[in-house]
Amino acid sequence: MEELFRRIKEAAHTIYRTIKFDMQDSFYEHVGQGAGGDLSAKIDLFAEEIFIDALAPYGRIISEEAGSVGAGEYDIILDPIDGSDNLLSSFPYYGSSIAVQKEGKTVFSFIVNYANGDFYVKWKDFYKKGSLLHDRLKDVRFNHYARVGLFEKAYANPGVVSALKEAGYKFRSPGAVALSLAYAHYVKFVIFIGTIRAYDVEAGLHQCADLFVYRDERSIVVAKEREVYERIVQIVEKGM
Q1: Is the predicted pLDDT of residue 208 greater than 70, yes or no?
Q2: What is the CATH number of domain 2-139?
């Protein structure tokens, strides 16, 4: 897994530098609908091509844009640009997510935030936070001082929004599901309500395995504190 991590980090760094320094006008253009159902911009396809080149030796790539590509020992679930609408709107919350699976179980995950260079990588007992800007890694730790949670798709769930407000919970809705799950150890909670797709959640849920996690057909709740978790699950169940 060390070699896989190195190749992914190098690919992510190439995409990061392109977004930061060489983001051409043509990258903003939409070129059709991807396999995941969303419109694909040229920056999505550029990032996908970089990752396919890096990941092809390891197995079948299942990408939000191209669908299934190649074959091999692993299934690799790829979202080339998580939060692409944010990127196209110059809102600094967008990245990539990769989940490597064997026999249906995720064994490796990598999530990167191109807005600030943060990344999170996990396999077996190895779970670290790093940066594309240097080689230092540090342990992922709980932040028990968090004041806000993250609620993806809040705009589509006004009942839950009202219930959270009444219960006194502050939240933000940044618009990139995998990234929000990657930050779950640091914020108060993470909520997602909507169509659940593997591209959006597999890497993030792999990194939330030591947290309280609720998941049904249309919703996910993650929190590090049992009391907060149980209260948020109640709110989501009643508000949907």
Answers
A1: yes
A2: 3.30.540.10
96 contacts 76 by C-beta, under 8 angstroms: no
Average pLDDT, the chain: 93
pTM as predicted? 0.94
Pairing type for strands 189-193 and 148-152 reads: parallel
Burial class for 6, CB neighbours closer than 10 Å (0-12, 13-18, 19+)? exposed
Residue closest to 185 by CA, chosen among 167, 212, 165, 164: 212
Ranges of each domain in the chain: 2-139, 148-239
Q: How many CB atoms lie within 10 A of CB 148?
A: 12
The CA dihedral of 216, 127, 16, 28, to the nearest 10 degrees, is 0
What DSSP assignment string belongs to 72-111?
Answer: SSEEEEEEEEETHHHHHTT-S--EEEEEEEETTEEEEEEE
Q: Tokens for 110?
A: 């990598």
Cα-Cα-Cα-Cα dihedral of 82, 109, 70, 37, to 10°? Answer: -30
* Residue 34's pLDDT band (cuts 50, 70, 90): low
Average pLDDT over residues 12-33: 86
Gap between the Cα atoms of 20 and 25, Å rounded: 13
Is residue 148 predicted with pLDDT exceeding 60? yes
The one-character DSSP state at 209 is T
CATH class entry, domain 148-239:
alpha beta
